[in-house]
Structures are given as structure tokens and as C-alpha cells.
Amino acid sequence: MKKFFVIGMLFSAVMVQAQTARTFTLDLTEDGKAQMVCFLPETSCGKAIVGVPGGGYSVLSNTHEGTMASDWLNQQGIAYFVVNYRLPEGDRMKPMSDVMNGIRTVRDSAKVWGINPNDVGIMGFSAGGHLASVVSTHADFDARPNFSILFYPVISMDQRVSHKWSCINFLGEEGLKDPALVRDFSTMNAVRRHLTPPALIISASDDRLVPFVTNGLEYYKAMRLAGNDCAMYVYPTGDHGFGFGPWFKYHDQLLTDIGNWLKAHQAPKEDAVRVACIGNSITDGHGIDMATAYGYPALLQKKLGSDYWVKNFGVSARTMLNKGDYPYMNELAWKDALAFKPDIVVIKLGTNDSKGRNWLFGAEFRQDLEQMITTLRPDLLQPAKKKGKKAAATVPAKPQIFLCTPIKAEKTTWDINDSIIVNGVIPVQQEVAKKYGLNVIDLHTLFEGGEKLMMTDGIHPNGQGADKMAQIIADALKQ
């Protein structure tokens, strides 16, 4: 019986090993001090994960918090890449740049490695969980992961409530004296609504090294309060550092939980039509709980289907006017919207511009709107070419831009003025649209239904109103 058991175990080991088609190591720095160990699956599902080992920023725990995850991930068809990053040693940009370089490398090589570049996640452990959360909240769009898995992460850089040596090693003794730096790299403070990727946080209730309540739980709270997609699994026991080690009491349950979460987060198709929704609080989903799932852009995604990829770049209170109190084009969301390289852009700005203090600069609304349009479409700055009799067919320039007129302000809450919207904002939008050959979605007229579609403030759509907005815009995009 023992002989058959041993043969069975060997056969299982061979089968697991067979799931990994290629293993190789790449240098991430010219001197080879930072490397990435790559595990490509035999059959790829298109998903990839960049692993970030822990070790308190003093060593790298890259076995059970690194390479040990490769077999299981490759069995799921997931490509896996472990970044052996440089330790900070006084320069926090070393580990940050190494991990960001790893993500960029995976995306740049996606076609060769059978990966969907829009489905590249990050998985960090302990201090590596902190580093993964830093990249998730601080990296530019091209190096920001599509999802994050954080094992018992260090989140706070306040050594009084966190892992002391991770804080010291990452920020340095002098950095810890700078309250702004401590706050910025305590990553629960850096979570951005709609912009920080979905997160799965994993911990054990009896973790004595990195207090869960002041670290992992704080990140979850920040994500949930922002309305972002997040989940949290806390196991009864396990202390700190269990990683993918089979000795962890709940190891099998852990794999099931991670697998189910990953299956629930399917990436858009590589060739999906990219739709960027730019706007103020109405796009952002102000007042709608979990707006990332229930705001108008999320509902628009459902109505358009899987051939489209809709992203919400709305920011509350923002103006088109660059001299307004909160100009949209100063926001990270605007930078991200450009980096998204959309095929379609839906612009819904103008409501906050109608406030008296903002419309003082109303004479500049046209030039600021044109600035946004020509930044999205630099080709519109070029003089139109005369078409010859045998002019060759041209590919339509991208993105296709849809200008939405503001919905009717049912009340004067926050000094929003519907008269200025009707007589000031909308005429300029229509003239600019005509000048550049853009589409206009007249929400001010089409979004009818009055207060039953609005929150009590008379400005923001409720859930029913968000659904109506999404339907109007979906109909326009499909024409």
C-alpha cells in the first residue's frame, strides 16, 4: 500500500510540475541586483500576477512568500512573476521602481507570453504587501496593477501601530520624522475612488507581528469607504507569515478563497472598445453607495456588454474651467483617462461651472473645453484637408468624443444655477461640438422624470436616475 502511495505522490508531483511550461529569470536593473523569476503556465488563461515577497525591507522571504505559489497559480493558467527587488537602504524608490519595472515588463511582453495586459495583478506579503499597496496607490497608470492581493500587509508607516522595522527600513530614520511622508506612504491614505485597483486582503486574527486592525483592516476600510471593489478574509489562526506554505492550517481553504475571488474578477477583452467616462460628482456617483458598482458608468458597462470596457474617471466637485475652484484637468483622473487610451470619451462637465464663484470666469469656458478636446484629439488642431475625387478612405480618428449637456438642476443646492447651465454652458458646448464635429448627448432634455430620479439635493441622480443616464448614453454610443 505504501508503495502505491509513494508512486501516486510522485505522479502528482510530475503532474503539478507539468503545469509550468517555462521558468526563467530576467534582470530588472542593469547591474542585475533586481531580478524577476518568471513562471509561465503550460496553458495560459491570460491572467498574470507579479509577486512581491516580504521580509521587513531587510531581507527577502521569497520561498513561501514567493516561488512556492508558482505551482498552484500555473495550474490555474496564471502566469507568475516573483520580483526579487532591491532593499531600500535609505532609498525607497529602489524597491518601488523594481516592482513597477516588473509590471511594465510583463505588460510589454504580454503578447509573447500569452497574457492579457489588462489582467496583470500584484500579490504582496507583509512588507511586500506594503510595497504592493504602494504600487497600487502611487504608480502611474501603466505600472499600476489591475488587482491586488495583500497577505497580512504592513499598511501604516506609523511605527507605533505597525511593524517598526518595516517603517524604519522603508522611510529611514529621517523619513519617519516627516509627518507628510508617514501619512502619504501609510497607503490607506492614498486610496483613490475608482482609480485604486480591486483588492483582496488576507490575514490571520492572531497576527502578532503586523497588527491587522491598524493595517490590513485600515486598507479595507479606505477601499470600502471609497466605494472601491474589495474583499477581506481573516482566518482564525495562523499568526504571521504563512504565505503559500502547506503547513498553514487553512491552506486549502485559502487556495479556494483566492481562486474564487480571481474567478469573480474577469478582465475585459483585449480588443474591447475602451470608454472613458469623464465628469464631476454625477459621473463619480456621489451619494450612491458602492458607486464603482452602481454608478452610471458601471451600469453603462452592463448595458454595453463585454465588447466594451467602461472606466469611471469622475471626480466630485470638479469644473471644466481651469480657474474654477476645483479644475478637472488638474486631477490624477484626467491623467489616467489619457493613459487609458480610450476609443470613446464621454464628457459630462459643466454643472459646477454654473456656480456664481466659478462662472465669474465663464468667458473662458470655451477655451478650456477646447483644450480638453484637443488634448484628447490633437489631430483636431490640424487644418482639415480637402478631399480629392479619389481620396483614400481614412480610419476614423480616436477617441470618438461625446459631449453631454448637464442634467437639469432641480434645486439651487451648492449655488448650482440651472439658468447659467441653459444660457451659458450648453450653448458653448453645442458650438464647440459643431466646430469639431463631435456628438452631443442632450441630457438636459432627455433626462426627464424630475425629482423621482434625483436625490434630495436635486442635483445628483439616485440609483434609478443613474440607470436612466446609462441607458441614454448607451443608446447614443450604439448609434
Automatic annotation (TrEMBL):
Residue span, SGNH hydrolase-type esterase domain: 277-467
Record bears the keyword Cytoplasm: no
Residue span(s) of domain Alpha/beta hydrolase fold-3: 54-242
UniProtKB keywords: Hydrolase, Signal
Signal peptide residue numbers: 1-18
Gene Ontology MF annotations: acetylxylan esterase activity
InterPro entries (UniProt xref): AB_hydrolase_3, AB_hydrolase_fold, AxeA1, GDXG_lipolytic_enzyme, SGNH_hydro, SGNH_hydro_sf
Regions annotated as coiled coil: none
Pfam families assigned to the protein according to its UniProt record, in alphabetical order: Abhydrolase_3, Lipase_GDSL_2
Name of the protein described by the UniProt record: Acetyl esterase/lipase
Organism field: Xylanibacter ruminicola (Prevotella ruminicola)
Lineage of producing organism: Bacteria, Pseudomonadati, Bacteroidota, Bacteroidia, Bacteroidales
